[in-house]
Amino acid sequence: MLGILVTAILASAATALYFIISHRRRTPKYRLNPDDLPEVGECLSNFAGLTKSAVHEGNHVELFQNGSIFPALVEAIRNAQDTVHLESFVWDKGELEKEFVQLLCQKVKEGVKVRVLLDAIGAMDADPKQLKILRDNGVKFWEYCKVRWWNLRRFNHRTHRKLLIIDGKIGFTFGHGIADQWLGEGQDKHHWRDTGIKITGPAVFSLQAVFMENWMEETDVIPTESSCFPHLEPTGSVTAHVVSSATGDAISAVGLLYSLAIASARQSVYIQNPYFAPEKSLVELLCKMVKRGVEVHLMIPGKQTDNPFVRRAGCSLYRPLLEGGVKLYEYNLTLLHQKIVVVDGKWTHVGSTNFDARSLALNEEVGIGLLDSKIAESLIEAFHHDLQHCTEITLERWHKRRWYHKSFDWFAYLLRDQL
User: Fold this and answer.
1) Which CATH architecture is the domain 34-418 placed in?
2) Which sign does the torsion angle of CA 239, 42, 382, 159 carry?
3) Within 10 A of 188 (CB to CB), how many other CB atoms are there?
4) Choosing from 191, 327, 337, 346, which is the catalytic residue?
């Protein structure tokens, strides 16, 4: 009898674990013919329609490298009149946390509605005393997918989005977390390399909608202030489209966008990403673009990484990438954390999505596509500056690795879905 009971418990636990780790968006191998796509400047309607988003013209965009984004975030919050909406994955104890807590509480005292949504796993290193200060001072604060025994089915569902929306009129999206390692200029292993943007204009409407999706999902509260979705006049010349992926989606919209954008390239593709372990179909697409005459440059972290297992999984893809002619660079100075794609010096994508299975198949993610040659030029210039701290990986050098390194890479890639 006891044996039957133990067997039943183990079977139930195994079934629950299988459900938790297998419930994910599809990342299919798309039947995508690059010859069927126009060049990237003419693709935005396709990008938006296929990813359930919209094209917004007339935006103004500012780029921020490394810790320079935080003074801009602080200034925007300080000048808020009606609402402050902040969503983040990482929120760690430290000086930056204290500064944000003090500022957010001050805005509540001024009559501003402040909503903060942090991922329960990503914010595990937050100072509980600081989070209590937020709650005690009237900040509407929630933890996304907090781990409870009755909520295990959602344990694997994380919000990896990084958003700040002020008064429904000013939007930020970035790779940064609210943590001290993002301060500075990415100058050493204790100060990470990252990129973010500030945007005003019609596209902020879509960023606000993405925040609202997670907020209502977690709180069951519908924000109804008129300032949440104000009428937005054009503020510049940048055309933008916001793309998000949610856990319940059938496929990854951001993953689809990545494939479409790469396939539309005629001249060049630049990618910077901290976690690169995608499906092999994406590697095949990158190599196919090289055969079409497109220069493909891929920059990912070297040994300076906070997740060496993901790095090893990505290393298993180096050989086909190099054989296919992709230019591959490992960044050595610190953790390269930005998520950047630039196509043909015209279109760029900045956001939270990594090139790994967790971002593409599980996490809540958001990013923004920007059609503007000046922004693309700035990001390509930053890429070339980062090359000063890179080692280019060659096929000859890669073939010389020891057999056990190759075996470990292969094994790590097998586990990529849960990394």
Assistant:
1) 2-Layer Sandwich (3.30)
2) positive
3) 11
4) 337
3-state secondary structure of 270: strand
386 given a catalytic annotation: no
Residues 119, 167, 409, 417: which is the catalytic one?
Answer: 167
Residues 114, 105: Cα–Cα separation, whole Å: 8
Q: Which of 56, 85, 113, 160 does the annotation list as catalytic?
A: 160
160 belongs to the catalytic site: yes
pLDDT of residue 311: 86
Longest dimension (CA), the chain: 73
User: Does the active-site annotation cover 339?
Assistant: yes
Contact 149, 223 (CB under 8 A): no
Q: Tell me: the pLDDT tens digits for 78-102?
A: 999 999 999 999 999 999 999 999 9
29 is catalytic: no
pLDDT, residue 344, reads: 98
**Segments making up each domain of the chain, as ranges:** 34-418
Residue with tokens 């919000």: 159
Is 331 within 8 Å of 311 (Cβ atoms)?
no
Pairing of strands 340-343, 163-166: unpaired
For residue 267, the cross-strand partners are: none
- pTM of the full structure: 0.91
Q: Is the pLDDT of residue 20 over 50?
A: no
Strands 238-245 and 365-371: antiparallel
C-alpha Rg value of the chain to the nearest Å: 21
